[in-house]
């Protein structure tokens, strides 16, 4: 009865969240039944309920695959580079924007840095090819004009991971500042005034007031980012991949696409996807416990 009373009291709030709940039920939870086929020798003609069970055979095949450690390494390195170099950039840009006093100038800067987010990875990859192509790229034309040899940016395995990281920073940094700017707007301005009275410089105010004020947001987003550590962005990697950089570009998402979509190994590719999801779940649980151990709120 207490539950019904609470629902009646906040009926409009529950109606407000109802579309979101329905969305997650239909498109997130119901499809989870599909992981069953990772334990089957699934055949589309026999269906999910009549396909023979094979247990953990697909997982054993994955771990015995000679390419497993190569794919795992590529996925982890790309993700870790994004965490180390991309993740802090929205925080830094948000801190810089927060220090701007001219609102009109601030709005112009925000609009300019938000724009790349709305470009698809196809366009971003096209711009990258126009800039870095060895034969006709703008950067290589400039190098040649200064007497240097053209550089193979796009087919050099040694800089492929760095190239992906730079693309992510350019495309998503501006959009990522929105959450941090919103968090900074919630900081009590009296704290900055008190720090100013105590003689704190702008850098000191940022270090002792602004950063602690958004610390919980930073930790929450970092935990969520660790949960998707096995997701490096299929479209970006797929568009930038070529035969010269396959050894450093092949990740779990491209591996699943190749085996699941192109070769029709639905059960095996589902098993690979389930493995990456379990890794992400363990990362979230571990990071959340670590955050709580250090006195933070965490996700739950």
Automatic annotation (TrEMBL):
Can you tell me where the transmembrane regions are? Answer: 12-39, 76-97, 118-139, 159-185, 266-285
Q: Which Gene3D superfamilies match?
A: MetI-like
Q: Which membrane topology term applies here?
A: Multi-pass membrane protein
- What's one GO BP annotation on this UniProt entry? transmembrane transport
- Superkingdom is Bacteria
Q: In what residue span(s) does the ABC transmembrane type-1 domain sit?
A: 72-287
* Keyword field contains Signal: no
Entry keyword Membrane: yes
Main subcellular location: membrane
Q: Which family does it belong to?
A: Belongs to the binding-protein-dependent transport system permease family.
What is the protein's given name?
A: Multiple-sugar transport system permease YteP
Q: Gene name on record?
A: yteP
